[in-house]
Amino acid sequence: MKRGTEVEVVIEKFADRGKSLARLDGMVIFVNGAVPGDRVRARITRKKKKHAEAKLIELLEASELRSEPACSHFGVCGGCKWQHIRYDVQLDAKAQSVREALEHTGGLASAPMEPIVRAESPLRYRNKMEFSFSAARWLTEAEISSGTKLDRSFALGLHVPSNFEKVLDLNECHLAPPIAERLVNRVRKMARELEWMPWNVRTHKGYLRHLVVRMSARLPQVMVNLVTSWPDDDRMEKFAAMLSDEFPEVTTLINTVNSGVALTAYGKATTIFGSGHIEDRIGDKTFRIGPASFFQTNTVQAEKLYEVVAAYAELKSDDHVYDLYCGAGTIGIYLSDRVKSVVGIDIIPEAIRDAKANVTANEISNCDFVVGDMGKLFNEAFVERNSRPDVLIVDPPRVGLHKDVVRQIAELRAHRFVYVSCNPQTMARDIGLLSDVYAVDRVCPVDQFPQTHHVEAVARLTAKNV
What we know:
- The chain has about 475 residues and is α/β, with parallel strands linked by helices.
- It has 3 domains: about 5-65, CATH 2.40.50.140; about 90-120 and about 300-465, Vaccinia Virus protein VP39 (Rossmann fold), CATH 3.40.50; about 130-280, CATH 2.40.50.1070.
- About 25% of the residues lie in helices and about 30% in strands.
- The strands form 4 sheets. An 8-stranded mixed β-sheet has the order 8-10-9-7-11-12-13-14, with helices on one face. The protein has a 7-stranded mixed β-sheet with strand order 19-18-17-20-21-23-22, with helices on both faces. Strands 1-5-6-4-3-2 form a 6-stranded mixed β-sheet, with no helix packed on it.
């Protein structure tokens, strides 16, 4: 078996990172886009000693676990890779991925697992969409074979997987509310009519960089952030007039200028009209969201996630809570009414600025948020200054806890410890490292991102011999 070989296999099960697994002549083969039970023809794209990777070429026999994708772009766009899988099957696969991570990575086969928290709305759930402009449009196989002459020099949509340059010219997205689709199509039409040039990653020229749409799930507020390479008052005046005339739902417009070459939507932000932010609600708390603010992309599921955290923490009115890797403070602020005090830490100054603004907006007096490198700031001196915590909550990035944080958590021996994770593998690793000090009581997966393989998980740990 070598690269380019075509093989016929039956898919056995899901594997890591949303791939599926088959076997042939003792060799494990990972196939993108397949579902357990499928019989497929696949082409080997990479061969290693113990496994191979393959691209699905032809579906010979479809699994009963499949469903019909809602989106015409499915299979090309990188936004969602599981839309062809029944939602109940997605949930089972995500729960299994958490279970396997605990067992194989953390050595925690006996950790009690609760049923996954499902999403009421598996589609149209995202409150933020970041679309890219590109001078290199990706053409699908169907578009190429159609014989129609298409302009490849302008695209507005999402990047195709593993391609930093080419963008799929998107006209629908079923992860976002309909207004995002309408905005993409209208902005594309306007930009082409006025000959506003998209960014070219090779020449580093072009005016248009990104179109970012942020939508409140609980309030009638929408932010449009047009990211450009330079400020242009005349163009922004025309753009603002179009939005005001045709999109009354848009409550604020931002122009962010990114004059560098990096493909990011960050830079100097100027408010063109409106307040420069929108607000959303989780429970009875209001959160202010600016163009660069961190906020959970699924508002409804975030509230469910935070309720799992609250239940696992078994909060009491005299509790002191540490909220580590707190971001914009949403977890701590959401729980603040139920405890005596909350102290949060995050390394990103803008996130702490948002957290403090949210404290003020909600008239909260028992929350304090500080900027700092977790590995350096979270130490015994910090604990002495801020009261020893009754409850420790961590919500680290995908890489998990810094080794110094693991050591400090072990020394701290908090009575109740809640670990929130967007990566079950690193969560399992960290919990395994702490297993001499903390026992795992419960683990609950939460589906924050339907139609993708990503899953959140919440674990409750208690200190041993305390």
